[in-house]
Amino acid sequence: MMRKAAKKSPVRARSKTRRDVSASPWRLLGPAELHRIAERVIRLSEADETEVEIGVAADTLTRFANNTIHQNVAEMDTHISVRAVLDGRTARSTTNKTDDESLRRVVASAASLALCQPRDPGLLPMPGPQKLQKLNRYFASTAAATPDDRARAVRRVIAIAEKNSQTSAGIFSTGANEFALANSKGLFAHYAQSRAEFSVTMMESASSGWAKANSPDVAALAPEALADSASRKAAASRSPRELPPGHYTAILEPAAVLDLLGFLFYDFAGTAVLDQRSCFTDRLGKPLFGSNISIWDDVSHPLQLGAPFDGEGLPRQKIHLVDRGVPLNLVYARSTAKKMKTRPTGHGLPLPNEYGEAPMNLVFAGGDSSVEEMIRTTERGILVTRLWYIREVDPYEKILTGMTRDGTFLVENGRVAGGIRNFRFNQSLLAMLSSVEALGPAVRASGEESFEMVVPAMKVGGFHFTEVTKF
Amino acid sequence: MQDWANWAIETAKLRGATYADVRVMDIRQRDLSTKNGEVGNLSENETLGIGIRVIAGGAWGFAATDRLTRPGIQACAAEAVAIAKASALAKLHDVVLAPEQAYVDTWQNPFLKDPFRIPVERQIDLLLAADREMRRVAGVTLAEGSMSFRRIEQLFVSSIGSRIHQIKVQSGAGIVATSFANNEIQKRSYPNSFGGQHTLQGYEAIEAMDLVGHAGSIAEESVALHKAPQCPEGTRTIILESGQLGLQIHESIGHPIELDRVLGMEANFAGMSFLTLDKLRTLRYASDIVNVVADARIEHGPGLGTFGYDDEGVPAQCTPIIQHGLFTGYLSNRETAASIGESRSGGTMRTESWNRLPIIRMTNVSLLPGEWKPEDLIADTDDGILMETNRSWSIDDRRYHFQFSTEIGWEIKGGKKVRMLKNPSYSGITTEFWSSCDAICSRDYWTLWGTPNCGKGQPQQVMGTGHGAAPSRFRNVKVGVAFSE
């Protein structure tokens, strides 16, 4: 799974800082220092054009299981990546060694690699300086959260598990990263972002519940509330019964929706359509989903994260990808846009690559139906907390397989009737998005199969559960 | 490297660590790809850093940095100890490790041709030649090729006196022909899907693949699949070729035998395992002819799970996992071995890089060969489906229920391959499936496959694992469910 690129924003905290970040060995370097390093690298290069990407990450993660902390880690990592262009050819070399000799070597390596290949007629000159929007997604208090802060929160969650005679497992992660992109045409872009994530599984002997959230601001997370929710699900799915496989109305909570829809993201790439491996090949402009499905890519959405510029430094534009069931637009890197005789949208991946571009900030239109209302209006159906090990079975009909996990319930006559054994599903996403009967408000959802997006809960008719497992 | 490791161990001890180990790792990687006659990715990457793991206050802490100055490393070691002390705020009991002696040693995998000394031009030319062969076939809409090479030099030092220097060189490559027609995408890969074949060898492994020689046939198959009938739905005898069987072993044997999963340590993400402790040496996992080992020794072959020592300083071992169908062993580390009363770690702690904590990972989890020849296996099958090359894979979070689909299938009637089938898939319950195995091909048809992309842990780590397999037959398997209406 491709990761989101790191992003840009001025460093301005909304929450109170609890310790001086600059005194920590785990501090970021800041735009001025990254600019200085980039200039130094560009000066070392004799290539026709040179691009420098610098990433700095300071990440921590406290992991618990069996009601105890069993792993607890921190890392500080810097990388410097150089792309050289010589005589219409380009290549990339990356290092995390920042001494002069290593920087000279990485610059020379990028240049010599570039010359090892045939000329690329589609290679465009690097872009010059760009006008970029400012996004503030860095919270100093999140970057400065300590191991003790995380351990105390975990201890409170473990207490909830113990009170309910359950076993807890999960993670509490905090950190920050920054990312700068510069080139010999004078482009410089910088983005910093903090990140906090909490995930918890609560288990009984034959049932489990799960909850997860992330945010750039650790203060926005509520570990105990998430633990309470997971605990209630574990209790409610106690003694699960086995149902026969078949087509059921499915109420998919946002995490389940996210991990399914995540499989669509690369289909929106212009290169995927050019290569005829997108499910939108020959289907653009024609109704494909229900009229209640609209999708955008929008890096500036208040619930989104990520840099406002792409792998070449172009500003990411808001793109209306699907309008009321009709796939309208794709995203394009500069070279793809030229091949497809359109304009770049600022979604290019770092060059060189064979994939072109991808929308990394998908936002699905929501509705006004809560999960509780979906349950109330369902005569017989399945409520799904999360999905697991989803893989693509058919790329054009977009048939996906996977399992339900950690809280799967039978809904009968408008109420949750109890837990059931987990199902395997084989479901076409195209069919599913044509059968959405109700939508919840769009939220920032967190799963395990896809990067985060803004998606609603969905009530879907005729969801195809094909087999059942033993728990 | 030695000075860096010493500074880390000294600082950790001074700060109160009762145990410390350190991995200094210097990793170099080269990636190349081609698509439809053009170079796609062409890049090199190197990363050097130190990861410091400590026990303090009876609990674990880990910190890693690439700021390799004395102050940088000392600060990192101090952070690891501070983190361990924070872990102790929520501990149930002190960490106990199974005993292990100290080793001072060096180890390097054998290889003939250093892939980083082979000119990049030659590597690109090979991929472009295979690309041309694929695109010669009318109907191929996408031709792709890739190679990757990795050199890992690492020094392990621990507070019990171990100092182990290892160098591992691995090489991998693969090609894919894709055909889009009539609202359907079909593809064929060689020598395996999802990046091809990867082994702990030099460039000689790439040359032995003969990518160009196989490009035309997979291209023709990708086009022919459009006209092939759909794999039927029902219960059938299936024969799996060794690449698909390698992934079947990975998912339905390799993961459930990880002792950290069994003990609940992966419950929040990777999941748990149906192989609870009561099943050790009591569960009939498979039929009598099935023997599986987890073997990290070079004698087993140049797999992605081959090494001299694991990443907590335990020598490579061969652990019997299934013996004549009986479940006999887990993948363990020093901590989990001690917790279930085993006298020693199975030596399966591995880390993706210097900035990740070692965790229990598969080594080479392999099905030992049987005695059949593939042609005899087909001749002995009255009504079945031969399935080749994985297309999708999925299994539940306790590793009971799985579903796989492959790129191509062949219907077998009356002991003969009679026609191609498209969209083959099969599904089942792990122990029922392995208990239905009634024939395994011999050593001559056994391949040690590399799975370069196994994800596990939080933060997630990607690791290469090895899986030896020969074509094998399974009876009464559910097929075709993936495309059922």
Could you explain the architecture of this structure?
The complex is a heterodimer of chains A (471) and B (485). Helix content of chain A is 20%, strand content 35%. Chain A is of the alpha+beta class and 471 residues long. In chain A, a hairpin with a 4-residue loop joins strand 5 and strand 6. Chain A has ten helices and 19 strands. In chain A, helix 4 packs parallel to helix 5. Chain A folds into two domains: 206 residues, 2-Layer Sandwich (PmbA/TldD fold); 232 residues, no CATH class. Chain A is globular and about 70 Å long. A six-stranded antiparallel β-sheet of chain A has the order 3-2-1-4-5-6. A five-stranded mixed barrel of chain A has the order 7-12-13-15-19. Chain A has a four-stranded antiparallel β-sheet with strand order 10-9-8-11, with no helix packed on it. Chain B is of the alpha+beta class and 485 residues long. Chain B folds into two domains: 226 residues, PmbA/TldD fold (2-Layer Sandwich); 250 residues, no CATH class. Chain B is 21% helix and 39% strand. Chain B has ten helices and 23 strands. In chain B, the strands form five sheets. In chain B, strands 1, 2, 3, 4, 5, 6, 7 and 8 form an eight-stranded mixed β-sheet that branches. In chain B, helix 1 packs across helix 2 and helix 3 packs parallel to helix 5. Chain B is globular. At the A-B interface, strand 1, strand 2, strand 3, helix 2 and helix 4 of A face strand 1, strand 2, strand 3, helix 2 and helix 3 of B. Strand 3 of chain A pairs parallel with strand 2 of chain B.
In round numbers, the mean pLDDT of chain B is 98
Q: What percent of residues of chain A are in strands?
A: 35-45%
Structural class of chain A: alpha+beta
Q: State the shape of chain A.
A: globular
Count every beta strand of chain B, where a strand is a DSSP E run of 2 or more residues: 23
State the share of residues found in helices of chain B, binned by percent.
Answer: 10-25%
Give the tally of structural domains of chain A: 2
